[in-house]
Amino acid sequence: MRARDLAEPYPSVGVGDDALTAARLLAEERLPAVLVLDGHGMPGAILPASQLVRLLVPNYVLEDPALAAVIDEAHADRLCQALTGRTVGEVLPKQAAAPPVADADDTAVEVAALMATSRSPLIAVVEHARRPPTRHGPSAGRHHRLPAPGTPAGHRMSNWHAWAALAVFAGAYVLIITEWVHRVAAALGGAALMLALRATDADAAFFSTDSGIDWNVIFLLLGMMMIVGVLRRTGLFEFLAIWAVKRARAKPFRVMVMLVVITAVASALLDNVTTVLLVAPVTLLVCERLNLPVAPFLIAEVLASNIGGIATLVGDPPNIIIASRAGLNFNDFLVHLAPLAVILTAVLVLMCRFMFRRAFVYDEKLAAEVMALSEREAIRDRRLLVQGLAVLALVVAAFVLHPVLHYEPSVVALLGAGLLVAISPVKTNDVLADVEWPTLAFFAGLFIMVGALIETGVIKEVSSALADATGGNALGATMLLLGASAVLSGIVDNIPYVATMAPITADLVRTVGDTHGHVLWWALAVGADLGGNATAIGASANVVVLGIAERNRTPISFWTFTRYGAPVAAVTIAVSGLYIWLRYFALA
Question: 253-263 in b/e burial notation, b at 16+ Cβ within 10 A?
């Protein structure tokens, strides 16, 4: 049995149809919603009856339903004039989602699988042959384009808005690169312009999960910054700094190798942002003790955190998005990507030996002084240390048990921060003073700017071009997805990028078939995670480290980071391409 045998005609309207006509159709057919076709006759969105009701009913009735009794039938007729002259596209809800689409030749099992993966009780069925759509039977080619996440079907922003959004983003990016203004000012200024030009709006910027501020990231950072702020008062980081230097015999390159390996391993168990928040203070103290330049060590660690983050589901926020969309679990990432993370960490260590060779200046006098120190004497408050480590252990355990507990990392971090502040004697104002507020503001501005590109369809056009260019060739699709993800994740933060690319990748998976389906998800994860190393704003951990460096009066410029990050990204992507080809194609 094929999809066409299971399909039933369902009423539909076009995005250009009169909204009042759609309302009459809903009333006459007694439907909860109507299918909306885009300009090509493709199923583009669902228009729920509740959306039209909200437009018809006055706000004072919505606030107090009891006032509905004062509206007589004549007044009700006048309310219907609110839809007069408006098209279906204009009244679609802001977050109108495209319905899942199956080909008429798909088997019943394929339809069932699509329903399961999309979690949708309704599937639109289309034919191969393109023919004019009818009101009860939309049909179009299999290779269709769906609207961008967060953009109503058939109601994208105009070309003017898209070009304006692109110009604002490019201008802000230039300011960040050149450092003519502070990066926080550039990001917030760009976000303000996006809102002023209506490239996005308040609903999309602050409440949309697809094109708005990722509050999970913001509050994860806030919670972990508060925990680190309390731990800093215990002397723990001085203890770790002295311990690490003594184990490395105060040799600068050995110290860097130790910190890189620790960061990569920790980033597989924690998310990479949490890891750099914990390791960066230790690094600052090590460099101060040995009179070493801070920038090479911090850059090496953040590169290691992004590499180590690919190993597990919780290692990097984009991995969580991919796992949710593809139905992957913690062990899937561990089996497929952990070996690659080990290889790439070794590659990074070799590259660091040559990239930062001028930083490895050994000072025997300083080394002897550090070797003579007792790390135990660095601990200033043992009781607070026990409290802080206990809370941190609980937070880490909750991170690792995310597949079981289903608590978002942001919730875990906030709970941990709240618990630690409640039980410790440290004043709340002092803890909040240690938070990197400029970093959080920068993230907010960046999320809004990227969200505007999503809202106006700019990122969707790039993603769709990628999908069209791959055809049905699995190897070509994999390598193109890997390379394109690496490049684009160096320009925009990899979290909104992966959120945008996830539905496109799902469509590619259906195109190439089950044999090579999962490899596309691995290509997306690897490309997005490693591509984030290319520039200072490519990944969340990069921005956090730059904020820490600036706060400690050792600023790292955009170009300084890129000078080392871009070559590492290029080499690791090339090695990853070889790994993917060997494991999933040549030796499969």
Answer: bebbbbbbbbb
For residue range 211-268, what is the model confidence (pLDDT) as tens digits?
A: 788 888 788 889 888 998 898 888 887 788 788 888 888 899 999 999 999 889 888 8
Chain segment 136-150, per-residue pLDDT in tens: 333 333 333 333 333
Amino acid, res. 578: L
Report which of 486, 490, 488 is spatially closest to residue 463, judged by C-alpha positions.
488
- Residue 348 is inside which H or E element, if any? helix 330-355
Confirm if 537 and 282 have CB atoms less than 8 A apart. no
Tokens 């159709």 -> residue: 25
pLDDT at 156: 43
Query: Could you give the residue ranges of the DSSP H alpha helices within 233-329?
Result: 236-247, 252-269, 272-290, 294-308, 317-326
pLDDT band (50, 70, 90) for residue 39 = low
The amino acid at 454: I
* Residues 6+ away with beta carbon under 8 Å from 475: 516, 581, 585
CA-based nearest residue to 93, from 204, 249, 255: 204
pLDDT in tens, 515-559: 565 899 999 999 999 998 999 888 888 988 998 898 888 899 888
pTM of the complete model? 0.62
Residue 124 and residue 138 in contact, taking contact as beta carbons nearer than 8 Å? yes
Token pair for 291: 């009179």
The answer for residues whose C-beta is within 8 angstroms of residue 290's C-beta and 6 or more apart is 245, 250, 252, 255, 363, 366, 367, 370
In 57-182, which ranges are continuous DSSP H helix?
A: 59-63, 73-79, 88-91, 108-118, 159-178
Nearest to 571 by CA among 354, 425, 392, 366: 354
Per DSSP (E only), the strands in 432-524 are none
Residue 78 in this model has a pLDDT that exceeds 60: no
Question: Which CA distances in Å does 261 have to 90, 308, 491?
Answer: 54, 9, 27
Token pair for 226: 């508060």
The first and second tokens of residue 381, run together, are 């408050």
For the beta carbon of residue 288, count every other beta carbon within 10 angstroms.
13
Q: What is the pLDDT of residues 379-407, one digit of tens each?
A: 889 999 999 999 989 988 887 787 788 88
Contact 124/99 with Cβ under 8 angstroms?
yes
Determine the Cα–Cα distance for residues 297 and 300; give it in Å rounded to an integer. Answer: 5
